[in-house]
Specification:
Ribosomal Protein S5, domain 2; five-stranded mixed beta sheet; 23% strand; alpha+beta; 5 strands
Length: 128
């Protein structure tokens, strides 16, 4: 089997994934999953696509993560892994779509406006 690559994005995070046959190792920026994401919920987010498809322990994932925070990176990685599984086998798509892993979350940070402290916050109004 050749290596399958896919990309996933969330907020400012970008994940590039390389999927190959193996024993289920997930390597992120040359680190193990548990050292890169020490929080259990983030590890769970990353492993969701494989557990939904019941392919846990059959494929190795090598990922390059860049930008954003840890939650955004975990969700970008989930999207990239899901897209790689669909490239591997097109019949995986309905299960992943039903679980909500095939949709890119479009939320982005709103820009700061001039004359305001943040994007929507206003300075305190003083009548006198």
């Amino acid at each position: 089997m050749e290596v399958i690559n896919a990309i996933g994005r969330r907020k400012a995070a970008v994940a590039r994934v390389y999927l190959s046959e193996g024993n289920g190792e997930i390597t992120i920026n040359n680190k193990d999953l548990k050292t890169y994401f020490p929080v259990g919920t983030l590890q769970y987010i990353v492993e969701q696509p494989a557990s939904v498809l019941e392919l846990t322990g059959k494929y190795n994932v090598k990922a390059n993560l860049d930008g954003g925070g840890i939650k955004g990176q975990a969700e970008a990685l989930r999207l990239a892994i899901s897209r790689a599984f669909v490239k591997l086998d097109e019949t995986n798509k309905p299960k992943l779509k039903a679980a909500g892993f095939m949709t890119r979350n479009p939320h982005e940070v709103e820009r700061k406006k001039p004359g305001r402290p943040k994007a929507r916050k206003r300075f305190q109004f003083s009548k006198r």
